[in-house]
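Record Peptide deformylase, 166 aa.
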Amino acid sequence: MVSLLHREYNRDDGVGLAAPQVGVNVRLMVFNPEGRTRPGNESILVNPEIVEQLGGKEVGEEGCLSFPRIYGDVERSRQITIKALDAKGQPVKLQLTDPWVARIFQHEYDHLQGILFHDRMKPAVVETVRPSLVALEEEFLAAHPEAKIVRVPPPKVNKGFGAVKK
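=>
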């Protein structure tokens, strides 16, 4: 399992990958904040948990290997404390104080929770990526005509009180 995830991670130019992204329903992730520039620096975590969120929040642009060429701002904690098992099954507890590393972990952790990065975007940001998401759905449906999807409609545009917040 670890080798499959590691192989898929190395195939693309990302900085992290969670097992559910390759169709494996286990709580396992691999990430390397430097991506292909420093191979061999991957962290493999099994059954990770966020123990504490520190350092406030920050908004930053994210993309996802599961949604190629789609990017949008997502708010994340700047620093977190996590616990997990390493690839050898040994318990680890880490303080991720670099906001970039904390962001990568939280993005992959969300995959393990069934949350996608566009689920964390503010409504106005989702509307900027909606056409690209719909295009991916259409591409998938063309390749898999038997598939059924349910689209979430865009929010109603209100003026004044009750308007979509940006």
